[in-house]
Amino acid sequence: MKLYCIEVLFKDSNGKVRLLAATHDLQSFGYFQRSSVKEFMDFTSKIIVERTAICSRSSTKEQEYICHVYVRSDSLAGVVIGDHEYPNRVAHTLLNKVLDDFTSKGPKAQWSISNPGDIPFKELDEYLSKYQDPKSADAMTKIQSELDETKIILHNTIEAVLDRHEKLDNLIEKSDGLSMQSKAFYKTAKKTNSCCVIL
Amino acid sequence: MNNHNSFNHHVKSRSEVSNISISDDDAPINKKLPKELLLRIFSFLDVVSLCRCAKVSKFWNLLALDGSNWQRVDLFEFQRDIVGPVVENISKRCGGFLKSLSLRGCQSITDNALKIFAQQCRNIEELNLNNCKEITDVTCEHLGKHSHKLSWLDISSCQQITDKSLKALSDGCHTLQFINISWCTRITNDGLEAMSKGCHNLHTFIGKGLTQVTDEGVGYIAKNCEKLKKINLHSCTNITDDAVQEIGDHCHQILFLCLSNCTRLTDASLVSLGQGCHNLTTLEVADCSHFTDNGFQALARNCSNLEKMDLEECIQITDTTLNYLAMFCPKLSALSLSHCELLTDEGIRHVGASACATEHLKILELDNCPLITDASLEHLMGCQSLERIELYDCQLITRAGIRRLRTRLPNIKVHAYFAPVTPPPSVGNGRQRYCKCCTIL
Amino acid sequence: MSSDSRGCRLLSDLNSVFRKDPEIDEYDFLPVLEPKHNRSPLILQDHKLGLEMWSVKILHHYAYNTLMTWRMKEVNAKFLGQLDLICLTRAIVLVNPDCSTAWNIRKELIESGDLSVADDLKLGALVLGKHPKSPETFSHRKWLFTTLVDSCLANSSGSTVSNSSVNMYNNFVNMDAIDVNLDPNVQNGFNVEPSSKQPDFQEHAFKELRNCQKASDKYPSNYNAWSHRIWVVKHCLNCSLQVLFGELHTTENWVSKHISDHSGFHYRQFLLTSLQKQSIDLKEQFSVCYKNLIQKELATTIDLIKCYEGHEALWYHRRYIFQNLCQSYSAGTLLELFHPQHEYEDDIVLNISQKKTKLENERQVLLLKEIDTVTKSDLTSKDKFHKTLAQKYIDWIQKFSRSLES
């Protein structure tokens, strides 16, 4: 069980999303893949937050990864990406904490104009390493009472989050946040025959 | 492959009672053809076929294994399986008939087998013992004692060989013309001195990687073996300009010289060669990183017969060297300039415009010359004989540049990282290469 | 035979990269499908090697064809020296590690002394980084270790490789970390013979355990890696108690982080079974009761099930542990049977039947308690899948208890 990244984002009234703080742990990925993996995690966070309504939670599965999203009533959004073993409720409790903590770091007015790093939030790294082990991170029993798990919307793929006329391939092709290399990675990964990991 | 085993088998079965029926020997072919004619036919067969014939009948066995059919034996193909007794049996059977034997790579052959060989086959002329790792000076002592007709000997990579071997050869093998002692790292100047005194007829000396040999040793060879045409001192890392000076002073007939990876050499070496070795056609000096334009100027002015030059990683040379080569060496047909990082299009322009360019230049290696651009390819468009050009890692070369060159010289092989223009047809033999689902590989 | 002329160059590029940096510890194929520049497609950064994808196919094709024409002694085969073979086979296994011909040629090179076992172990470890499941790579490594063991045996004039290797283990595992009372004096049976080769072998064997762990990190439920690890423990480390303890300790944390990895739990089951087989030594040497170990394992498993709902692997592990615990009750009887404290046969028979009833009662209590715990804590879960798993477990217990009775 593994946590790969935590991000804090802001979703403005037009539905546009801006990244405010992020941290990643990509050690388990190959050296040459890390930059692309990071770009894809940021990209995924963004499109899922864009498509998640205010005051709601979702957990979206994509292969062996799950992307947990919470958009608060004040438009502040948090994203946690972990693997399929990571318990949903711990991920969402972590989101609560992260967003609460972030709120105390700077005035709300700044959210809509800030860039990553403008509002210092170095505790994010600590959260990421501490929550790698959900058992020691928090008393798990306490969590159960705080969170109503039934309110988390579950999706089985990223495609399921998208609107009917949208296609993931197109979104990736159009994205500015993804480098040429990452797009190539996506294409080759898609092409890959599952029995043959070589090419 | 167990043809060689039939030697063993044969030797045994001859002394025991053979169970081959005599009627085989009464076959029509044996009646129609006289023994001499059959022998004559057998003399055209290779080792494998002879062994097969030897299994046909008692009579054929006798004929096939007759020494006269075994004048030239190459056991390289069976190197893994050849053991001492096989060589001993061949030696006994062939005796004085055997003129040429190759045991290249037969790693389990020992001195004992070669002792018997030397005693039995005294007319041996060519002997290849490359990579017979077990043999020692004892083998060469026996060769020196018995093999007086030996003219061609390869004992490269036999690491147990020392100066003693060369002394023994010098005592007995005065007709030696070709010797290869590459990678016999125990050999020193003393060995070369002894050999040079006994073997005056040497025309080829190959001594790659003789790290203990210094100028003195090369000096003996140069002084005493003036008939030398070919010298290879690749990776003799301890020799200096003095050694090359001796070659220049004494070996005026030399045609081929390799000094690659003799890293201590400087321009003085090239000057010496220019003064003494006017007939030089091939010069290999890869990795001689001290060589500069000055040295090549001196060389080129005097050695106008140069045809092949390997200057890989002579990192100091510039377009000036190419200018001299273009001016003075009109017969150049192969030129390697890999990793000569200072070269530019200007230098290639000289080559392209030179006398050698249109008629002779066949191979040009420019890989890892980072300053070379498509302009160089334009300069080479007149080289009608150009067969192959190496351009790997010339990062300024473009696909379009290569395409233009190919339209002018349609038969040229251009080696670059770009895909070849016509994709080679996949090899159509039926071997299963990969899991069926992977059509990619 | 026509083929892409670039293959030869790519191979020499690969060789020069390995010459430049012998410490390459990772490689990967980069998603570049066409050469964009006239530049080598091999990239070396921080001991990591990247190969652009277009070149992989060409390189493999060239290396494979060259090697095979040589191997089959075809007429046009190129002469290949030992160094060529080492380089060609390396290129092949980096791309396709399940080419057994390539590995077999490397075996021959090792036997002829042209390649060292240590170098080949290093290549295999590199390959496993990219292909963590490759069965041929694991089987080649088994061969390498067998060769190492043989050469150690030959060097130590016979007997005690496995014993002394056990002694060496203390250097590698912090025994304090293991909850065991370990008295070094107890290991009186071991006499270490000084041999330069043995520490080497130790290091390789323990490195191998770490390699297996890396491979199982890379690929979930990596059966090949875990069964190789079992093989190493059995054949290279002789299933010594210290090794089993060390492994039990190091994998505890791992399985608690990989709760759906069946193979990881299976490995622990192997460790426990092996400990069980030596439970008498266990008690004598470490004053550890096997039953306590298995009880601790059950408690840990139950705890994991509570924290992480809906993972089948945990429930299967629980089945194994629980069954094992029940059996340990009957195994206990057998042990006591052989204690010659009883003088009269009648007494023995009486005693045995008394003991049997007592144990059967204890076991019955255990079964009931287990069913009760599951019913109370797991059957009430909101997670549907978790509930199904719990129900299946109860069904199994009931079936199991019936089989005990009959």
UniProtKB/TrEMBL annotation, chain A:
GO terms for cellular component: cytoplasmic vesicle membrane; Golgi membrane. SMART domains: Longin (SM01270). Keywords: Coiled coil, Lipoprotein, Membrane, Methylation, Palmitate, Prenylation. Residues 139-199 form the V-SNARE coiled-coil homology domain. It comes from the Eukaryota. GO terms for biological process: endoplasmic reticulum to Golgi vesicle-mediated transport. Belongs to the synaptobrevin family. This is Synaptobrevin homolog YKT6. It comes from Mytilus galloprovincialis (Mediterranean mussel).
UniProtKB/TrEMBL annotation, chain B:
It comes from Mytilus galloprovincialis. GO terms for molecular function: calmodulin binding; ubiquitin-like ligase-substrate adaptor activity. Pathway: Protein modification; protein ubiquitination. Its main location: membrane. Part of the SCF (SKP1-CUL1-F-box) E3 ubiquitin-protein ligase complex SCF(FBXL2) composed of CUL1, SKP1, RBX1 and FBXL2. Interacts with calmodulin; may antagonize substrate ubiquitination by SCF(FBXL2). May interact with PIK3R1. Interacts with PTPN13. InterPro entries: F-box_dom, FBXL15_LRR, Leu-rich_rpt, Leu-rich_rpt_Cys-con_subtyp, LRR_dom_sf. Keywords: Calcium, Calmodulin-binding, Isopeptide bond, Leucine-rich repeat, Lipoprotein, Membrane, Phosphoprotein, Prenylation, Repeat, Ubl conjugation, Ubl conjugation pathway. This is F-box/LRR-repeat protein 2. GO terms for cellular component: membrane; SCF ubiquitin ligase complex. Gene3D superfamilies: 1.20.1280.50, Ribonuclease Inhibitor. It is a lipid-anchor. One of its GO terms (biological process) is regulation of defense response. SMART domains: FBOX, LRR_CC. It is found in: Membrane. Residues 27-73 form the F-box domain.
From TrEMBL, chain C:
One of its GO terms (molecular function) is protein prenyltransferase activity. Keywords: Prenyltransferase, Repeat, Transferase. Signal peptide: none annotated. Pfam families: PPTA. It comes from the Eukaryota. One of its GO terms (cellular component) is cytoplasm. Belongs to the protein prenyltransferase subunit alpha family. This is Protein prenyltransferase alpha subunit repeat containing protein 1. It comes from Mytilus galloprovincialis.
